[in-house]
Amino acid sequence: MVINTLPLVSVCIPAYNQERYIRQCLEGVMMQQTSFLFEVIIGEDCSTDNTRRIIKEFEQRYPEIIKPIYHEKNVGPQRNAYEFCWPKLTGKYIAVCEGDDYWTDPLKLQKQVDFLEKNEDFVLCFHETNTVDANENIMRHVEVNGDGIVYEYDWKSIFHKHIATLSVVFRNCIPTNHKDFVHATYGDIFLFTVLSRYGKLAELGFNGGNYRKHTSGMYGGRTMANKYRGTIQTRKFMKKSSLFSEEQKQEIDKTIWREKKKYVKNLIKHGEITDSIRILFL
Questions:
Q1: What distance in Å separates the CA atoms of residue 166 and residue 11, rounded to the nearest whole number?
Q2: Which ranges in 216-271 belong to alpha helices (H)?
Q3: Where is the signal peptide (predicted)?
Q4: Is 37 left (phi over 0), alpha (psi -120 to 50) or beta?
Q5: Which residue among 59, 184, 200, 239 has the highest number of C-beta atoms inside a 10 angstrom radius?
Q6: Pick from 59, 180, 200: which is nearest to 126 by CA?
Q7: What is the pLDDT of residues 40-89, one digit of tens each?
Q8: Rounded to whole angstroms, how far apart are CA atoms 226 and 204?
Q9: Global pTM?
Q10: Is the model's pLDDT at 221 over the cut of 80?
């Protein structure tokens, strides 16, 4: 009998200056109860706090699972994830959890892998998440009735759905050495849209983790106008990329105008007239 010692799932964790949160992130990963092996690739981006020390602690405890990449200089979030971590992901499936977020369901990976193993026409599945602040206060709680309903999305309908990065498990099926991954403002929007060319996406009926919103976070620390600007810039960059079909690019065009109208309306509501005009003419 041949025992498979290769990980079925690779967990990618980009980390930078997250000493307050990285332990909880890693504990959420290491509590996973699975019938398969998984590996954890951590891109430690030359943090100036104790993030690296905590990661080394976990590396010593789980040397066969925790496989850090320690940068000698800061390379930035996109290069960290796509240029350095991605080539190290050997699993059939990939899960992602940024260093300030964390998983709360010990069966999260098992549920998602079971679904993808049984449904080969799906490329990615995700779940609901809560939002917490820097001090664990619940900012948004999502109740899921656990009735087993699966919501399906295709390449077009996914433009209307927000997917939390910490919630995804997807097939390791795309050429991530493409330079465009490194240059997209928001890599998650870019990645999920690329993946939608390879199959359907599914939202599974459970809540499996907490997204952390705080002022030092990559997204949470931005102003409303800067968040909107980043999204529009990512969409416009996608229109130029060879990774998307002409049909997708037409839908991206529609999405840009739909999002611009929504963002301008919201900025005006908050009295940010100048920023609303800038967004409109991006």
A1: 10
A2: 224-240, 246-269
A3: none
A4: beta
A5: 184
A6: 200
A7: 999 999 999 999 999 999 999 999 999 999 999 999 999 999 999 999 99
A8: 31
A9: 0.94
A10: no
Structure token pair of residue 281: 């003419």
Task: Answer whether 82's CB lies under 8 Å from 182's CB.
Answer: yes
| Residue with token string 């229109």 | 239
Determine contact, residues 140/220, Cβ cutoff 8 Å.
no
Q: What is the pLDDT of residues 106-165, one digit of tens each?
A: 999 999 999 999 999 999 999 999 999 999 999 999 988 776 789 999 999 999 999 999
Q: Classify 145 as helix, strand or coil.
A: coil
Sign of the Cα torsion 126, 131, 133, 138 reads negative
Instruction: Read off the tokens for 24.
Output: 């909880």
CATH of domain 9-212: 3.90.550.10
Chain centre to alpha carbon of residue 113:
17
What gap in Å lies between CA 67 and CA 64, rounded to an integer?
A: 8
| pLDDT value at 1 more than 80 | no
Beta-carbon count within 10 A of 58 CB = 21
CB 79 within 8 A of CB 1: no
d(CA 13, CA 96): 6
| Backbone phi and psi for residue 278, each to the nearest 5 degrees, phi listed first | -60, -40
Give me the residue label for tokens 């005009």. Answer: 277
Note the pLDDT tens digit of each residue in 243-254.
999 999 999 999
Residues in the chain, total: 282
